[in-house]
Amino acid sequence: MGARGRSARTPSGRPGVTALLEVRPSRGKGRGLVALRDIKLGTVLPYCGVVRLEGPGVDTTYAMAAEYHDGRGRNGFVSMRGFLVDGNPKLLPGLRDSWKFAAYANEATRGPCNVVSVTNPAITHEALARSFKEERPVIVAFYVVARDIAAGEELTTHYGSGYPRKYKYEPQPPSQAQRDLAEDAAAAVVRDPPGPLLFPAYRGGTGT
After folding, report:
1. What are the tens digits of pLDDT across the range 143-164?
2. Where is the composition biased (Low complexity) (predicted)?
3. 18 pLDDT exceeds 80?
4. Rg (CA), the chain
5. pLDDT at 206 over 50
6. DSSP code per residue over 86-104
7. Where are the domains of the chain?
8. 3-state secondary structure of 16
């Protein structure tokens, strides 16, 4: 799935996602997202999905809350009741693989996660409604690397307290410092969108 040999690069000269990441078998978890080379703290990946109705029998494996920003609610976000965002890669046939990678990040089974998920601060109710009506992908969240990740290491995250887990262990949520970093990085991406293949590493408000 990933590019081999010569690195795929964005117009900015940064390595593209397919040169940094690969989906591989993950012991006890099916498949997972693995770093092909070192990835720096603050690197940001988009989490794309299609808005669907909640209900009995709906597969929630790749589901996220359908939240949008309106300046009110919890941290300025409000949930779209009765709906969810499904990031199942099979529902995103028109997107390049690099936009589907985040969906393969598993939860950490021991210790803290190395990737933090934050809701897209630019998402609106209108965008979610259009995604539902047109079955159109939307960037609902960003996955932000919370520490430097070494080549060969699996990227792991925390799905949130409301995720319906079917396993016995309780994953460790990110620290407040990690959340703050992730929120700042997501805000920076929204203010100054980078190229389509890879969002830049974040350092104190600027891309590097």
Report:
1. 999 999 999 999 998 877 666 5
2. 176-186
3. no
4. 16
5. no
6. E--GGG-TTS-GGGTGGGG
7. 40-153+169-191
8. coil
